[in-house]
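re: ur question from earlier - yeah i can do the single chain one, its not a big deal. heres the input i used so u can compare w yours
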Amino acid sequence: MHLVAQQSVAAPGETLRRFYLTLLGSFGPQGWWPARTRLEMILGAILTQNTNWRNATLALKNLRRAGLLVWPGLRRAALQELEHCVRPAGFYRQKARTIHDLADWLKRAHGGSLDSLFSLQPTQSRRQLLSLKGIGPETADAILLYAGRQPIFVSDAYTRRVLSRHQLIPARADYGFAQRFLHQHLPSDQAMFNEFHALLVETAKRYCRGPAARCEECPLRKFLPAHGQPLAISASILPRRELANANESA
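and the output i got, formated as tokens:
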């Protein structure tokens, strides 16, 4: 299969802008994050680790029925009760512990106030979240982007799959590499990061399915490199040292 790119060579930021506008025109606003409160957004970011959103939603429903979708309730709940509620999301012991520890930490470090946490510089609040067991970069960034409204792009596996298929980043670029690329070439705009991330996830789920990709039906098909050759922008995406490191890991 050979799909010829219909775009001229463009700077990375312009290419990403075209991706964004094309996907927004095709799919429309995604309305992320699907939750009623900031607490539900945070719990959703934890519960969706290594599972799908349907299973995370079942766990959230259990927490709601148990009256635990409030910070005081989470702090008072027995660990076994939390485990029972979040079981549908898988890895329920680890996730219950993470939720319990987060609620306890927020009380001790910020008086139970999300406003206090999110008033910090993003790098500082991110560092604090990453210090908690069970919260990695993707989960921390989802919390900061969606609940904290911070301009931090969630460069998850879906995002990296789409970008690497279009040869904007190396095939095995890691989370940090992809995020630095996006932050370097996009305006620091929380609303755009929110929508663009959601659109890229939808693209990956519908069309960019690893080996079983449906490129001919994808709205981004016109941007694919001609005959599988990388676009001329690839060499200038990031500083040479980072580009070399990513290529070595590939």
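Residues 12-30+154-249 form a domain with the Endonuclease Iii, domain 2 fold (CATH 1.10.1670.10). not sure if urs matches, ping me
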